[in-house]
Design brief:
This protein has about 475 residues and is mainly α. It has four domains: about 150 residues, HUPs (Rossmann fold, 3-Layer(aba) Sandwich); about 100 residues, Glutamyl-tRNA Synthetase, domain 3 (Alpha-Beta Complex), CATH 3.90.800; about 55 residues; about 100 residues, Arc Repressor Mutant, subunit A (Orthogonal Bundle). Helix content is about 50%, strand content about 10%. The protein is built from 20 helices and twelve strands. A three-stranded parallel sheet has the order 1-2-3. A three-stranded antiparallel sheet has the order 4-5-8, sandwiched between helices. A two-stranded antiparallel ribbon has the order 6-7. Helix 3 crosses helix 7 and helix 18 packs across helix 19. Bound molecules: glutamic acid. The site of glutamic acid has 7 residues, from loops.
Amino acid sequence: MRVRFAPSPTGYLHVGGARTAVFNWLLARRHQGTFVLRIEDTDRERSSDAHTRAIVDGMAWLGLDWDEGPFFQSEGVERHREAALRLLAEGKAYRDFSDGEAVREEARERKMHPSRVAREHAERVDPEESERRAQAGERFAVRFRVPDGETVFEDLVHGETRFGNDDVDDLVLLRSDGSPVYNLAVVSDDAEQEITHVLRGDDHLSNTPKQVLLYRALGLPEPLFGHVPMILGSDGRKLSKRHGAVAVSAYAEEGILPEAMLNFLALLGWSPGDDREFMTADELVAAFSTERLLKSASVFDSEKLGWLNGRHLAARPDDELADHLRTALGDEPSFLNGLLEDEAWRTALLEVVKPRARTLDDLVEQARPFLCDRLSYEEKAVQKHWLRDRDAALERLERLLGAFDGAEWSGEELETRLRATAAEMEVGAGKVIHPLRVALTGNMASPGIFDVLVLLGRERVDARISEGLERIRAAS
Ligand code: GLU
């Protein structure tokens, strides 16, 4: 099995292209096949090295390694041209000397496809004359003579697919400047690189009968095609910039992990056949099969991407996450050097913050109050839970300070004491938890308060409650 990813370097690696790359890579890896990277750079105006680099970087980020290439389509131009000339010599293609504008005009008047008009014109020129005019240097395009009948191929996604050849126009193979067209280049390259399977977006479905006809005319073995449905935005329309980021690199910048993106892309139009969603690269490879490529369009669900990212984040080794926290927070003047070295404490911290983090940035923010001694207080939280009823907040925090005094520092014990304090004051536990949370974390939301208490430890809890009390008193 030999498969390929064949991006045109006319832009960055976008979600749709990346998904195509992922499917082909999974197919190759699943069957120990060869994954070829081919850069389709024949559109010289729109192609650039910067785009090629962006695509290659995007693939590397996703972990999509290739076995051969990158090949550049532009390097095969001579071979593409030879293929067209061979078809011409065999009478399967013809010279088209006609003036494009005049042909289009005539086609409009006669309500015909321009290529049919061009064919009529060409047929009026006998072979010797055609040869003479070509020798004399007259410019011509080479058009493929689409045979009568029907083109049938087996699509891995859609099953048997038929096109009436009447609906396929006599495509130009070589333009009058001698440059080969895209459909010819793709066929010639896929044959040259001995590609056996082509998975690509169904925006290419209309090219496929042309390509199949070319394979057959050239006597080349044709690959199996599978056309995967497009990706829709949450509003049901084709995914585009309108829906936000479409460049894969933008997700990297937003803190999406490559393994989560890979997992997410693989599930856009494919399913493992059971209810698994969180899957590692190895699991995806082991489960991949073209039989479960879906026929219907898939929706890009950012919520799900975030959720998967959180799962993959949590699956990263603790060491690595701790390193990230050290790098992100280590420069802060109040960073509590050494805390992360205590393995039991570190495990407890990560257990508490990981489920609340979808990205590495989230993880840092969640962990910050535990690792940095200087809190930044969320204005909204201060207003709502401290200053709206200052006396109540003061009283509750003072009582808690007393209640925790001498307590055995376990979650259970602290919970018992906190609930008892609330009951004595005849308020619900929430009424004491809210001002306490602001004092301990500075935030409106945090992990469970008893986890927070245990992680911070007696001294820091005392210090933070005391600081909270001072701040409330000082606020006018
Ligand atoms: N170069 C084409 C594209 O980027 C893909 C061609 C193919 O997969 O056959 O859309």
